[in-house]
Fold these 2 entries.
Entry 1:
Amino acid sequence: MNVVLYAGSIIIMVWGVAHIVPTKSVVKGFGPISEENRQIITMEWVAEGAALCFIGLLTLLVTSFAGPQDPLATTIYRVSAGMLITMAVLTALTGARTSIIPIKVCPIVKAVAAVLLLVGSIL
């Protein structure tokens, strides 16, 4: 059970870091845009990566310190999975409709991590 929870946590943390690292090149890929738009895109790109890292870290720490049998831990796993599913749907309806492969994969990674957290909360 812990292995499933740790896997979901680590997958989404790694995906969050992978989201943040290429921010500069992602923003540059938009071509010539205003400085204000560049700042907004940077903010949003980093914010999503940070949110993913936070979800992963939170679930990792809860698993490590409280354990999956703790009722609050179960709630955190399920709420985190719900947020990941929400983010996956948003990405599927927006960014994944582009030709950029990592963004097409993003909803799948988020959904896999969500499923792992849900399964871990049930076992």
Note: The helical segments are 2-20, 23-28, 35-65, 71-93, 101-122.
Entry 2:
Amino acid sequence: MLDKIRDALQRFFYGRRGMDELGQFTFAVYVVLLILNLLTRNILFYYIELAVVFIFLFRCLSKNFIKRQQENDKYLEIKNRIARFFRIQKRRWTDRKTHVYRTCPHCHTTVRLPKIKGTHTTTCPKCRKDFEVKV
């Protein structure tokens, strides 16, 4: 009997995607919403929970690998962009006494320069154009 159940479950889950990083994120959102719902007893959180669980299960049980991979890649792109922003802010804070950050007027790249008072001419590492910086 247990062998039949195990075989049926294996046939059902064969070819399914399972958890990826977007799946882990949606599960974390579900847990947060569940806790908020338990604390506030708000019906809005209940319906949002149901939607998030539906999305989570749909993604985990889907056989459309290409579409789910594209969704996960888009999520990772957004996540990395946000993480990069906070890394830059942290680095700016730790370097605040020794370096200044200026934006290139031509390509808008952020350039890290030593904090030496005066007007300096610097070259952008990306577009190779010179511009003046006052520190």
Note: Residues 2-94 form one domain.
